[in-house]
Each structure stands twice: as structure tokens, then as C-alpha cells.
Amino acid sequence: FKGGDTCEYLLSSGRFLGEKVWQPHSCMMHKYKNSEAKNCLIDKHVVFIGDSRIRQLFYSFIKLINPQVKEEGIKHGNIPFEDKSASIKVDFLWYPEVNGSMRQRIKSWTESSVAKPHIIVVGAATWSIKIHNGSNEALAQYKINITSIAPLLEKLAISSDVYWVLQDPVYEDMLSESRKMITNEKIDAYNEAAVRILNSSSRNSKAKVKVFSVSKLIAQETIMKSADGLHLPESSRDTNAMILMNVYCNKIMKPIDGSCCQPQPPLTLIQKIAFCFFTLSIIGYLIISLIHRNNYRKNKSCTDLESGEEKKPAISTPNISTLEMLLQCFCKLGLIMTYFYLCDRANLFMKENKFYTHSSFFIPIVYILVLGVFYTENTKETKVLNREQTDEWKGWMQLVILIYHISGASTFLPVYMHIRVLVAAYLFQTGYGHFSYFWIKGDFGVYRVCQVLFRLNFLVVVLCIVMDRPYQFYYFVPLVTVWFMIIYATLAVWPQIVQKKANGNCLWHLGLLLKLISLLTCIYFLSYSQGVFEKIFSFWPLSKCFELNGNVYEWWFRWKLDRYVVFHGMLFAFIYLALQKRQMISEGKGDPLFSNRVSNVLLFISIVSFLTYSIWASSCKNKTECNELHPSVSVVQILAFILIRNIPGYVRSVYSSFFAWFGKISLELFICQYHIWLAADTKGILVLIPGYPMFNVLVSTFIFVCVAHEISQITNDLAQIVVPKDNSTLLKRLLCIAGFFSGLHFFSAMQDQSRH
Hints:
One of its GO terms (biological process) is carbohydrate metabolic process. By secondary structure, this protein is of the alpha/beta class. It has 29 helices and 15 strands. The strands form 5 sheets. It has a 6-stranded mixed beta sheet, sandwiched between helices. It has a 3-stranded antiparallel beta sheet with strand order 11-15-14. The longest helix is centred in the middle third of the chain and has 30 residues, at 269-298.
């Protein structure tokens, strides 16, 4: 691990994922759009100097700025290009040989009065081999000419980016008779001479000419598809142009999925404060542990000097104090957050782009589903959506979503649409679970609300601080948090209608239905009133939570995508609990949910509905159109699954403990994957062990799951300390939390001001 500058890897090494996707060694390459390329190169002058191969690279480069450009320039002459809207100039200068003419042109830019190009791309050799019939004298002259040019290029490299493009191999069997002397052996000799001279010259220079050698590797894989054996196919030269764009633009544009050539971001003020806090927590915990250990040794069994027998200490080992528990949690959390930072903010570990294949998604899915079946156990209770069953449901859905993310399956629309149903199912459970609790328990106290909010948001708040990311970046947590508050507000607002009250008078059921209809009306109104929605969440302090990249559009999109499913979950819970109260369903062990005839009919309808939705989702052609229908139809497959899972008595009586274990830490798994399993904020894959993809996934997955499990335990322990049951103590803690967020906002404002 050389660490630091990944540009060297981008320019010199990599491999193909599939046929056309190039993966640089150790870092991720961003795919630049035309608008991004223009923003990066605004007011810039780029020059390509060389032969027909450099002309190919020139055309691929300017097509990144303007895809409409056609290759109609003079073959053996200079070709200018200008984008007046962004004041970008890109020139190709025809110098097919490294000779005096090329040297004179380069020398003219070193004059102090002349405007220098910002990027200079140079390369030539095949014409020298062709014209001089591959003679050794031509190679000797080539070395002399490069030696004279090298100091000039280094002088330009002080203020400009200068790249020397090594010569690509040729496909000798396809070369015409006039090019038969251009052999790969000769090309290697010319490349070796260029690299040796440029590297030896740069040792005595402050600036360095960057050697663009990755083109050779790309050509070795693709030159067989060349039309003439000499020039690269279009896809390969486009890859070279994209690499060139990444080398120059990544440090300017800082794309999330372009880790190559990006410097490590400096620590923010809030990150420094967090680092100091965790360091003090670790030191404090170690001091308290040492004090307790010494006290324990003093009270340890000692030998009676007279009888020679051991006596038990009068004082037993003391229980862990609240302070020690608090420091222990923050100590472990500090070490875990250090790992998070090293994985996804420091340039310590490698990152790679995702590449989707059907096998990379479906084979792991089949494997975990088979594995889950082997861990079948009997449930403690046989009610519909009992605790073990909901944990199991969350578990297998989370594992499928994780495989979906690491395999890059979002590019395959049928898979994307089914994953959208899984996300909707999580929100459905949010509606079902919280409605059931408030309806049955009637507990609308502050303690319950604070417990739920703390457990949902603790990890995300810590990550926002440590990883310097906005709250909305972890979109699922804001989503479930807002929906929880909506459910709470709907049921807690006057008149409070709960099951105990409704049992005495059936009219209360009607009142609750009116509340639910009012909620549905509000959801419908907001879903078609983007302006009103954005105004609501643009007010401070909501804007600080829900803005991403300066606006709340992402939050609007995420909310709108599953806007009805929480309501569906609440309505399902209401109907199910009403049927259960009136004993209209049978939930005994092994008994079908309804009578045999009704159960069979409902089971048949559920299976048909489930398959119908899958067929529709698989036939989707346009993501935007399917996303528009998704909020209304996703509930079909969710309800179908619930009925299939619960109508047969035997199926309802068993569950997979394997999936249920993952279900208990599903929230932590979903959030932790952003930084310690995936990389570059989910855009890439973390590489702990380069060169061994399967072994790397096994190791990183093991660490990732262990960390998620540990964070789940830390969150539970801290919830008991931070959110006590005593109302007066809880009020004091809430004032402390308010002070914490006020301080966080103050330091955040200072950060923003210093950045601007």
C-alpha cells in the first residue's frame, strides 16, 4: 500500500470488468457527463500533440464536452475545437514525430509572455518506426529528441498538467503492408526509452511529467477489435479520454464516486471536536477500569495466616456504574468510528466501482435463502406478524437489499422494482408496528417517543458528525422518523382513540377511521403539491435536517416514492386487530387463519396477486413511469406475502432464526453499509484485500456484521442511560440534548462560513 496519490494507479494500472468497464487499481473512476466536463474545464485550454492515435484521443475527449462533434477534421493537420458557452479551447496539433518541430512548438509555450495551455497531452513514435523502416538509428535519434524535449515539458509541468502517452501495442496480423515494420517489439523499445528519459529527468526537477501508460493495458485487451491493427476501437479510446478527465477533474469537481486523484479531505472543526471527545472517553474509561481493578484486587480472597485457608472477601465485585457504562459505550463507539473514518474518508483502503452481472446478484440470493431455511425453529406465539416473524421478514429483506447494493443491481430495472417493494415493506411494518402499540397500549408518553427517536437516530447523528455528511444523506432514517412522528400525531391528537376506549362504544372506531381518512387526504394533497411540501421542509430548523445539496428535492422524491404504504400498514393493523378482537380469525398452532374454504380462496388470490405484481415489475421499461405507479400498487405484493406467510397454520408457527438474527440489527446493517462494506458513500466497494475479490467480501462482510451488531448493543445500552423513565430526569436530559444540538448548529455555521 503506497497510500496517498491514487493518480499513479489510475494512469498506470487496472483491469476490465466485463467487456467495456475499466476498473483502475485501488480507486474509483467517475463517469463524467457533458455538463460536468464543461464545469471542470471552464476557461481552460487543452492541447493534444502527436500522431493519428493522439488525434483519436482528442476526438474522444471533446465528445465528452460536446457529443455532437463529428470526426471530420483534416487527417494530417491541426484541428481546433472551441466551446464558447464555457470558454473551453481544445486543439489538436499534428506532430507525428518527436523532432525539432515538436520541440520548437513546446518551447514556444515556455516563453514567459505566452499563455500556456492548462493541459498538454503528447505522444508519438509509430511514424518514426514507419518512415525509417524500424531502424536502430531512428530509435537513437528518438532518444536524443526526447532528451531535449524533457526539460521543456518539466518546465511546463510547473504550471500545467503535462501527460506523455506511451504507444499502444498493435495487432500485427491486421497491419497493412506499409505498416508491417511497426512491431510490438519496436514499440516496447520506444516506450522504454521514453519512460527512462522522462523519469531520470524528473528526478532533478520540481515538477513531473505524468506518464500515461494505462492505454497500453487497455489496448492489450481490445486491439484485436481494431479496424486496421493500429488504431484502437472507439470504446477503448473513450475509456482513455474518461481516465484523462478523471485525472484532471476529480480534484476540482470532487465527485463522490470518483476517488482516483482526490486528496484526503481535511478534518472539519466538528470532526476534530468529535475526535477529542472520543479520545477523552477512551482515556476516562481506562482510568476508571484501572481504579476498579485495583479495588477488586484489594478485596480479593487472601490466605489466612493462622489457618492457611482462603477467606472470601467481605465486599463483592461492584456493579458497573452508570458513568463507567457510559464511558465504555463511547470508548467502543470511538474505536468503531475510527474504523469508519479510515475506510471511507482516509485514503488508506482501496475502493472499486460496482459491476453488475446476473450471477453476482442471484447466486448469493439463492445461497442465503437456502441457508435461512436450515435454521427453522418454532415460534413462541402463532399470531399474525408475531415478533419472530417480523424480525425474520426484516432480516431476509435486509440481506437481499445488501446484495442488491454491493452487486450494483440498481441498473437492472426488474430487480430495482422488487427492491422498492422491500423498502416499502419496511415502512409498512413501521405503520403496522407503531399503530398497534399506540392502539393497544394507549401510551402516548414522552418516554416512549424519546426511546424510539433515540434508537432510530443515534447512529446516524454520530455518522453525520464523524463522516461530515448531512442528515438527509442517510435517507431511510429521516423517512421512518418522520413517519413515526406522523403516526404519533395522528393518534395522540384529540380525541385520543385507543382500543380500550373503542371497545366500550363502536362509534370510536368510526372516529378513528375519520382520522385515518384525514391523514390519507393530507398525504394525497402533499404528494401533488411539491411547492407546499418544499416550503414546509425549507423552514429552519427543518431545512438543516432535510436539505441535500442545497435543496429538499431528494427528500421530496424519497417521501413521495412510498407515500401511501405507512397508511396501508396502519389500516391493516386496525382491520387485523378488530378481527382478532371479534375472534373472526383463528391463530392457534397449526390452525389455518380462516375456515378451510376461505383460507384456500384467499391463499390462491394472494399467490396470483404476488406473481402478477412480479410479472408487471419485470416487464417495466421506464423507471420514471414505474416509480409513479409504485406507491399505489406496492401494497399488493406486501399484503399477498403476509397472507401467504400467515394463512397456513404450519407456516405461521415456524420462523428462520438465521434471518431473525439479522432482522434485529437490520437498521444498523442498512446504515453501516454506507461506509464499511460499500465505499465512497455507497457508490463503490471497499477493498480490504486487493486481488482476491471473494476473500475480500468474506472478510469485509464479517467485520461489517460484527460492527453492526456491536453498535446495536451500544445503542440499546445508551438508550437506557440517556432516556430514563423518570420524567424529571428525562426533562433534564432533553435540555442537555437541546444544548448539544444548539452547539452542533453553532459549529456547523462556523464550518460553513470558513468554507465559503
